[in-house]
Design a protein that fits this description.
alpha/beta, Rossmann fold, 8 helices, 31% helix, globular
Length: 271
């Protein structure tokens, strides 16, 4: 029986103070094919992600990076093993509790921004608040605050099609962070951007981490981004390994662009 919400994440101070954001033990994930054969994607993964870390997930295409990220984001469930979020086995919770957890404690950013073109930037950023039942005026104030912090307040009234690609992705980050989640998951967030715009988005990732102590997990093929992270995990043959910067190229990560100083941390300027 799943734990009541009043006894879960909303009521426990230790839930937010846990040193380990995500504890993964014996994680396996498999799918059944049309022929009934089990396809194993992840096999007996074991690792911890600490609160406040920025962790890169790298590996060749098709190795299971997005599946791994989806499990961390509770969008898919493990076949075997345990995944604890801030000390809690949330996969034992009801669908209602899981949905509330995602809305309050998780932020998602994808390679494509998935913003709604019929709405303005601020209306898109307000969406997680509206879905959670937050008063519309307060939702607007929360959205304006995060847009201001990201230097995007002058784009609040623009429709999505009026924004540049970099601005669209930054709006997507604003939407993900509007409720100040403890965990931000990003799947190839620079994948559709040119080098210079990708650098700005990378700078934003590190600044969000520094400003809010947000735990951030990023799937990427971008070597310039991966090499800036203090920790990278590589997926190979369904298992996870810790990587040094020198080992990144062997795990499906691209080349650093000419003229780029990969070790430099370019601080994103909050306006």
């Amino acid at each position: 029986m799943s734990a009541p919400v009043s006894q879960g994440y909303a009521a426990s101070a230790s839930f937010f103070e846990s040193e380990i954001a995500i504890a993964i033990k014996g994680l396996s994930k498999s799918y059944s094919t049309d022929s009934g054969v089990a396809l194993s994607v992840l096999r007996d993964l074991n690792c911890n992600i600490r609160t406040g870390e920025v962790v890169g997930i790298v590996g060749a295409s098709g190795v299971g990076k997005t599946t791994f990220l989806h499990i961390l984001g509770t969008l898919e469930t493990p076949t075997l093993g345990t995944v604890l979020h801030f000390g809690k086995n949330i996969f034992s919770w009801s669908d209602t509790e899981l949905s509330r957890f995602r809305n309050e404690q998780l932020g998602f950013v994808f390679q494509f921004h998935y913003l709604l073109p019929e709405f303005t930037a601020i209306e898109n950023v307000m969406m997680p608040c509206i879905v959670a039942g937050v008063d519309r005026r307060l939702s607007r104030d929360m959205a304006l605050e995060i847009l201001h912090e990201l230097g995007l307040e002058n784009r609040a009234g623009f429709k999505i099609g009026q924004l540049s690609g970099g601005e669209q992705q930054r709006i997507a980050f604003a939407r993900a962070m509007v409720r100040r989640p403890r965990l931000l998951l990003a799947d190839e967030p620079t994948g559709n951007l040119d080098e210079r715009t990708g650098e700005k988005v990378a700078d934003l990732i590190f600044s969000l981490n520094e400003r809010y102590n947000t735990t951030i997990v990023v799937v990427t093929h971008n070597l310039a981004l991966a090499i800036r992270m203090k920790r990278c995990l590589g997926l190979v043959d369904g298992k996870v390994v810790e990587l040094t910067p020198a080992e990144l190229k062997g795990f499906g990560v691209g080349k650093v662009q000419a003229g780029r100083s990969p070790g430099a941390l370019h601080q994103y300027k909050f306006q």
